């Protein structure tokens, strides 16, 4: 009886194995779909910002696997930086990695998304407003009013930008009157209000312009980029701290039609990879900025100064004038300003009460 049962089990198992083998042999080969490829142009030809753009792309690839690939192109590969948003809108490019200040000529409201007035907040809190204070919805409304076929995400909270490079230490705001100064975005309006003559130039043209005397002073963004540009070769006086661009971050823009054609999980990858860069950028870049600031001082003989409070107070007064003027001209600009003020008043009210004086602790340990 036992032998009979064993034979039955064997024969049954053999039949199942044969069926499975036959099924395997009969199954047609399924071709793996080719990955979706997005062409993204960056506003950066090299340096740490191009590294940041690559970091975003690497994060997307790690999250999306073989389903999505971003082909990252350096500055001017397809169009000029000033044309990047239009190129994404038209579908000439699928995406762009830049900052809103590079296209703010379409609408000065764009500059409020990264290079607007300081209401006592940093880039971290402005991104908080974008994500939880209605900022993203206002930006999307702005894109709709401009008729732009784009979807944008914001990331990478930048530290406050230095006042920049000068021919001498700035001790008083009167020294800045009449200087030919490079900046971009609404900062140009602020500096004009303060009596400077403003020239808007791409990053790669700043050092040659100062060397030739086209400009007297300039800012770009941070010690690492400034050192890469060779600003230490045309100036030895570097002023840190300023309210002209005290908060900024990257904008990653996608062609809306292309973005919405992607599966929902790939749309989520593009969005959440952007969110991941908020932490990665801050950790990575602040360390590099600190290291390069030390090199500028110890290896290149640069004098590093903190911008006087009197100059920064004058900047705030200039911001008040500029914001009031544009708000009167543009109701939507005023709407965004009020939204930002509401968020900043509430959030910074809490943070200012709760945060200890970190400078006090720093002095305690390091002098």
CATH top level assignment of the domain at 36-157 and 247-287 = Alpha Beta
Low-confidence stretches: 1-27
- The 3D shape can be described as globular
Distance between the termini: 93 Å
CATH superfamily of the domain at 36-157 and 247-287: Bacterial extracellular solute-binding protein, family 7
The average pLDDT is 91
Measured as a percent range, the helix fraction is 40-55%
CATH fold descriptor of the domain at 36-157 and 247-287: D-Maltodextrin-Binding Protein, domain 2
Q: What class do helices, strands and sheet pairing give?
A: alpha/beta
Summarize the structure in words.
It is a single chain. The chain contains 13 helices and 11 strands. The chain is an alpha/beta fold. The radius of gyration is 27 Å and the shape is globular. The model is unreliable at 1-27 (pLDDT under 50). A 5-stranded mixed beta sheet has the order 2-1-3-10-4, sandwiched between helices. Strands 5-9-11 form a 3-stranded mixed beta sheet, with helices on one face. It has a 3-stranded parallel beta sheet with strand order 7-6-8, with helices on one face. The longest helix has 35 residues, at 264-298. The N and C termini lie far apart (93 Å). The chain has a domain at 36-157 and 247-287: Bacterial extracellular solute-binding protein, family 7 (D-Maltodextrin-Binding Protein, domain 2). The relative contact order is 0.14. The protein has helices at 2-26, 47-64, 84-90, 123-132, 135-145, 186-193, 206-212, 223-229, 256-261, 264-298, 309-329, 331-354, 358-366; strands at residues 36-42, 68-73, 95-98, 150-158, 164-166, 180-182, 197-199, 217-218, 237-240, 248-255, 303-306. It is 51% helix and 14% strand.
């Amino acid at each position: 009886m036992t032998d009979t049962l064993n034979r039955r089990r064997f024969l049954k198992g053999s039949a199942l194995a044969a069926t499975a083998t036959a099924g395997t042999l009969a199954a047609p080969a399924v071709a793996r779909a080719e990955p979706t490829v997005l062409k993204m142009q960056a506003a950066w030809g090299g340096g740490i910002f191009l590294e940041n753009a690559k970091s975003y792309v690497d994060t997307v690839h790690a999250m999306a696997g073989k389903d999505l690939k971003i082909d990252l192109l350096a500055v001017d590969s397809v169009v000029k930086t000033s044309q990047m948003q239009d190129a994404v809108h038209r579908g000439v490019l699928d995406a762009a990695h830049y900052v809103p200040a590079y296209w703010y000529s379409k609408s000065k409201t764009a500059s409020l998304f990264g290079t607007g007035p300081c209401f006592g907040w940093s880039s971290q809190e402005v991104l908080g407003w974008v994500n939880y204070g209605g900022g993203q919805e206002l930006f999307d409304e702005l894109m709709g009013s401009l008729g732009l076929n784009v979807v944008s995400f914001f990331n990478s909270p930048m530290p406050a930008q230095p006042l920049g490079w000068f021919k001498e230490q700035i001790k008083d705001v009167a020294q800045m009157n009449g200087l030919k100064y490079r900046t971009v975005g609404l900062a140009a309006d602020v500096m004009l209000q303060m009596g400077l003559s403003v020239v808007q130039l791409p990053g790669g043209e700043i050092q040659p312009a100062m060397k030739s005397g086209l400009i007297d002073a300039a800012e770009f963004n941070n010690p690492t980029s400034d050192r890469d540009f060779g600003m230490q070769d045309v100036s030895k006086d570097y002023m840190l701290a300023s309210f002209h661009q005290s908060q900024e971050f990257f904008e990653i823009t996608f062609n809306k039609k292309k973005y919405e054609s992607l599966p929902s999980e790939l749309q989520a990858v593009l969005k959440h990879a952007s969110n991941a860069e908020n932490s990665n950028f801050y950790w990575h870049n602040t360390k590099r900025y600190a290291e390069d600031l030390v090199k500028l001082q110890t290896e290149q003989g640069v004098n590093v100064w903190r911008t006087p409070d009197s100059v920064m107070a004058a900047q705030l007064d200039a911001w008040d004038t500029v914001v009031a003027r544009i708000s009167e001209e543009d109701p939507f600009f005023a709407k965004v300003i009020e939204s930002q003020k509401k968020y900043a008043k509430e959030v910074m009210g809490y943070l200012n009460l709760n945060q200890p004086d970190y400078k006090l602790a720093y002095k305690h340990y390091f002098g």
